[in-house]
Hints:
The complex is a heterotrimer of chains A (274), B (961) and C (358). By secondary structure, chain A is α+β, with helices and mostly antiparallel strands. Chain A is 18% helix and 30% strand. In chain A, strands 1, 4, 7, 8, 9, 10, 13, 14 and 15 form a nine-stranded mixed beta sheet that branches. In chain A, strands 2, 3, 5, 6, 11 and 12 form a six-stranded mixed beta sheet that branches. At the B-C interface, helix 2, helix 3, strand 4, helix 9 and strand 11 of B face helix 1, helix 3, strand 4, helix 6 and helix 10 of C. Chain A: GO terms for molecular function: heme binding; metal ion binding. Chain A: One of its GO terms (cellular component) is periplasmic space.
Amino acid sequence: xxxxxxxxTLAAALAVALVATTVAxxxxxxxxxxxxxPVHEGGEDASFASPGSQDWDAAPAxxxxxxxxxxxxxxxxxxxxxxxxxxxxxxxxxxxxxxSWADATRDTSTSDVREFADAVAVQLPVxxxxxxxxxxxxxxxxxxxxxxxxxxxxQELLAGGAGSTTPLDDTVSNASRYENGxxxxxxxxxxxxxxxxxxxxxxxxxxDVAVAVWNGSNGERSGVKAASSWHYLxxxxxxxxxxxxxxxxxxxxxAIVVTTLVTVEGVRRTRGES
Amino acid sequence: MSEHxxxxxxxxxxxxxxxxxxxxxxxxxxxxxxxxLGQQSEMxxxxxxxxxxGSYPYRDWEDLYREEWDWDSKARSTHxxxxxxxxxxxxxxxxxxxxxxxxxxxxxxxxxxLPDPNPRGxxxxxxxxxxxxxxxxxxxxxxxxGERGEGQWQRISWxxxxxxIAEEVxxxxxxxxYDAISGFTPIPAMSPVSFASGSRLVNLLGGVSHSFYDWYSxxxxxxxxxxxxxxxxxxxxxxxxxxxxIAWGSNINVTxxxxxxxxxxxxxxxxxxxxxxxxxxxxxxxxxxxxxxxPGTDTALALGMARVIVDEGLYDEAHLKEQTDMxxxxxEDTGKFLRVSDVPGLSTSADRPDQxxxxxxxxxxxxxxxxxxxxxxxxxxxSESISLDFDPQLSVEGTVQTTDGSAQVRTxxxxxxxxxxxxTPEYIYEETGVGEQTHQEIAREFAExxxxxIIHGKGVNDWYHNDLGNRAIQLLVTLTGxxxxxxxxxxHYVGQEKIxxxxxxxxxxxxxxxxxxxxxxxxxxxxxxILDNTDPDTAAKIRESIExxxxxxxxxxxxDGTRPDPSVLFVWRGNYFNQAKGNVALExxxxxxxxxxxxxxxxxxSTAMNADIxxxxxxxxxxxxxxxxxxxxxxxxxxxxxxxxxxxxxxxAIFRELAAKIQxxxxxxxxxxxxxxxxxxxxxxxxxxxxxxxxxxTGEDGALAEDKAAAEYILExxxxxxxxxxxxxxxxxxxxxxxxxxxxxxxxxxxxIEDGEAYxxxxxxxxxxxxxxxxxxxxxxxxxHDWFLELDEALPTHKQAPVLQEKSEYPLGYNxxxxxxxxxxxxxxxxxxxxxxxxxxxVYLNPEDAAKRGIEDGDTVKVYNDLAEVEVQAKIYPSxxxxxxxxxxxxxxxxxxxxxxxxxxxxxxxxxTQLVQYPEDTGEHLHFFPNYWGPxxxxxxxxxxxxxxxxxxGNQGGDGQ
Amino acid sequence: MSSQSDGGGSDTPEGVDLAEGIxxxxxxxxxxxxxxxxxxxxxxxKTNWTEGGGRDYMYWNNVETRPxxxxxxxxxxxxxxxxxxxxAERQPGQLPEKEEYGRAWEFNHxxxxxxxxxEPLRPMDGAEWGPNWDEDQGAxxxxxxxxxxxxxxxxxxxxxxxxxxxxxxxxxxxxxxGIVLVDQDRCRGYRYCVEGCPYKKVYYNSVTKNxxxxxxxxxxxxxxxxxxxxxxxSCAEDCPPQLRLVGFLDDEDxxxxxxxxxxxxxxxxxxxxxxxxxxxYIPPFAPPQHSERGESLDSERIPRNYLEExxxxxxxxxxxxxxxxxxxxxxxxxxxVMDLLTTENPAKQYRLEVFDEE
Lengths: 274, 961, 358
């Protein structure tokens, strides 16, 4: 495997940035339990609406490990995305979630019968007091889903079990970019919501969150998706659960560098440059 | 009739929804509501479905499609194309625009034992609405700014357009060259008011009206030759009454879609259906037996079958004796019929014993054959009878004492037997490829069936020797007496020659009664230089025919022996330029002679593209008119569903306003009336508008200003809709309520319309014993005209096709049949239709022929001969007979890369036997009458070669890629 | 409506299998001996339902030449349906490619007519395949080639695998008439139904991002519209030779029951897909073959094994019965089958309001 200087530089920069971040925020990292997603408090002057905003650099990322959802649909076990980085930021008014994952193919079209678009969804419990079943919630324990698809579709959904997905008025904003084989999608919503069937975003308690990703060119749609297990947005403050060591993060950082390199190579091959 | 539904729209939502549907396309609405339950922002319940089979809780959305099944008004109309369908449709209007159409489906039944006549229609009619709303619709008067055919236009006002045309017309008439003004429009029956609009003006101007039925080779010359009639056919419902039907080269399932039901359902009614097609055609697939003669050998096959019927004694002797010329005596020395005037002692009180004929009775006495022209007052004389008070012998050979000595004579029957003796089973197989046993068996079955019928099509009619083919096939129904009864006859359906409401249409179209009709085949070929490109014998005969006045030609020869060129051509309701055979010569020779070509059209066809001024015509859903066909016995109207789009106007309004402009300018310029050099009338341009809108029957001024009044005029003045012997009358408003069956028949039909029965022709002759309108007063298989004798065609006989291209050089026969995707050129360019084909012109090739030339399905190929080459896509058609290129016709010139078309490969050629007058002196049996007798524009004797075009991988995409 | 549901219920005629939970089942019989490939049904359907808004490429009703690739191209090789008669496990299916349907070509009319283009009129992006590309082609060698036309709509199956394929249950079968519909609000465009239908009669709309299909013209058969008139589906009512009969499978006095169950002359297309279609076909007969000497032979033109491939072994007895009934009529005897296949009594052809009183 050979890399062009530009790509090498990029990979190196990423690695440096990761390590720098880990070093710079040891307290936070030390405080991270296994399923926690750290929530960064965004400053008044900061901007998070765009995935490219430099302000996101200040927000720590949690890496969610993805596996094929068990939907019973054809090819359900052959999903392609293995992990998603999730960053969370709150401001006085809004909750911003940034999802980043590697996907060598940028699939933005649903305009042909065989074309499916890349997509991502964030699942939150409607009632945050009890954790719903991971697969689209349950009849008595519903979930809100923030859904974004690369063909421009954005929806806010309510579900109470597989096949029950019901659209709501969309109050979620989105922005996305695709660079170097990676999707970065920001989904955000006002903290307050007067509507029923909407997750109230607490400021004093953690909030469960799960993520699903679809790789369109792999035919992924519906229940054919890579999904995380339940995590939680650490909105309650303070350390919870067993601490993790700096070393662990350094390993994770190294893994990301390798993944990035592999992805870059993957993109290169896909483009037919090799 | 435009019937408006009033429905309750209390909340206005329906109307808004429809606006939306119309504006954005119906399906977009689905998109908007696609995720639309989200609008219920306070949703309490989730959409959960347990088992969607039988129990589904969220069905409110179904209103989506219910709301698409909605309209504001509808109107009855049909399609004014050169089609025999005459199908009544309802046109649905939504938000002021035509939405779609559906067959009206309300033809009243007249015979419950026949299949329901409803619905009539086809896929083309089902999307005419596309043309109404099409982007390519002509919306404004256009003046050519580039070369003819370039598609470079300047939009001009109606006043500018009419002024320019009027000035040209005034100058032409003033120069006494009014017979250089031509009007071409085909087929009155499909829309007689539109036909009459331009014809009426051309007639008032002293101009020339063109024939069409003969020009398009739809006219079967064998019918006027043998039966003395332009053609007369059973309506298609009568097919169901047959026990045995032969579809002979008539591809019903493609060209008679609204009528095909009667043929198809006959299978379940005990009828045997035989198909005679060179390919395993779209109709052959639904027959009980298919026979596949070699192309151009139909005459031999028919005569072979006739031989079987004669040899095996399966013929109807009584019919032959009474109804045909078979017992008439023919002189062996001259080949002419023995005339009463030839025979001393045969007495007659009639004026013209030289036009009367002789039979021999069982006692051996010579008898005068009753009903010949010599004792009739003109062609049609119901006071005479052909019934016999003696029993003539069919077979006679002997000597007769004549005024000039003696002559050997034989009956026509004996001559026919001699001719038929040539068509042995071995010969039939050798010549036609049809099995020796099979053709005999079909002949026997046909003869033995109680009621047998032949449906005869263009497949036979397009050959040079079409008259011989017609006559040979006609012979089969004559020999077996299958005429004049339901379920019998020879139904020739190629184009539609005549109109039920003949007299009303005729006097509306030609109010002066002095008509310059011209055989379009001769006119076109003459002015495109045929005489320079014809073999000397044929050229001499063409000249002779013109000189003797057998066939008229305009502009007429002037006193100084010169003949001017035609100069002004109006074309409406037709696509003359595209559909002309010999079109290379037409484009190169004839077109440059024309100073002004005006095309009146709703769409840009090839004639419009090659015109100087194009006037936007109302579509078929924007006007009043009538519709009829000889495939059925109903009349029904066009009514406007919407107003004419853009600046378009009805045909009637266009010619009326042109008349007004001519009158206005002529009056300003004080143009004097011009005396007509042929008729006793003056052409007065200062009253041409007044004459146009005046009812010439009542003298009422301004009565015919509107198209609906013109339609009512036709109904009022025709025997079929206003019979002379009853108080019954069909009115326009009545037929708008529901199509009505016509009430009676005029003189141009051969049977009456009878209650409860499908129309079947020939009853006046077969049952009522009126003389057939032929020279002999009988079905006449022997023609003793000098030219027929000279060409050895006195009796039907099989001849080889003329050699137009050498087979060694051009090995493939070239055939341009009517297809299912267009009515002539209309719909050829329609997007919906093209999407169900290959989007471009194609030729059907036999797989072996293709393989030999390295051609695969989808390849671009060049089809060529000595005249031209055209580039088209090859389609492999295993059901094609080897050796034939089948190019379903009427693709527009602009659908070919080099603007040649299917007709560019067809030379000009005409058969002399179709230029005659018979008898030579009076022409009472055969004389030129537009669409009745005249040379046909045949085209099937052509040969070509096909080659793959290198690098042509089929459809490469057009402009705008 | 009656609450009776199961196929074995008291009101359901013997031998009629209705889906569980369905009161009545609409059905259609198409007589292939009357189909002339004119496509009036295709156009009638299109002008009713599939113009614009992403629907242009769809032909809910199409007519294909057989033998041939059909629409979409080679749809019979794309899977779908059920693995067994238990209807428990579905056969995997594929999504057709865009080119296998053919695109809804746009043409350069305006450039040629008004802008002086010297190009020929053509699909602007070229054309490689379309819904009727192999029209009239068929198979065999002249003079013993053969072809016939096969009109197709959604079969509104008794065991619709498209319904079962949808993870959202956005397809359903109507209780009152068994029509299978795609809920246009609920559908999320996953296209499992497109994969799952072995007849490829569900279509993806790339504008609405939903799947759509033949609706058996339910607004027409319900008597919707300004005139409140019950009409048969437009593909049937507008058919010039009137080759379709429409009614309820469980109407013992109706044409469908008689042709399907009583006389068994109407058979299903690809019964081996096991979805139990409710569109039935009168199989085609054809003129006999020719010998090398141009004689008509006593030998069938369309190979029986080809017809068996399409319609299963039942096609043989159906053809034999038709032949017997035709012979009866030829001898002057009565035949109810032949009566049903003609339009002498159109009231018998469409029986749609028979259960309205329930």
